[in-house]
Amino acid sequence: MHLVAEIEFLVKMVQCWAPDCKHYNVRETCRFFRFPKDQKTRNRWIKLTRRTVEPGPGAYLCSCHFVDGKKDNGPTLFAYNKDKQLKFSFLKRGHVKRM
């Protein structure tokens, strides 16, 4: 992030743009990601958020909506699919016997 953009981000209060998310940058420990400028990736993010309006220039998504909190993973964790997410904690590396 450029220094000017980082200072601008710290000065203003930002709320996560995801539906049903109430995370603010001033009180949460998660990171906030600006919508990508690349139109293909941006459209994918908009589709995944299931919002009916176009995000403005100040729209951010918090890292809680990204697997492992990484922007490269894309936003996939939302309230609408919370109950559909599969968790395989028993499949940790080294715990599965190969035949």
TrEMBL record:
The keyword Chloroplast does not apply. InterPro entries: THAP_Znf (IPR006612). GO terms for molecular function: DNA binding; zinc ion binding. Pfam families: THAP. The keyword Chaperone does not apply. Signal peptide: none annotated. Keywords: DNA-binding, Metal-binding, Zinc, Zinc-finger. Residues 13-99 form the THAP-type domain. This is THAP-type domain-containing protein. It comes from Callosobruchus maculatus.
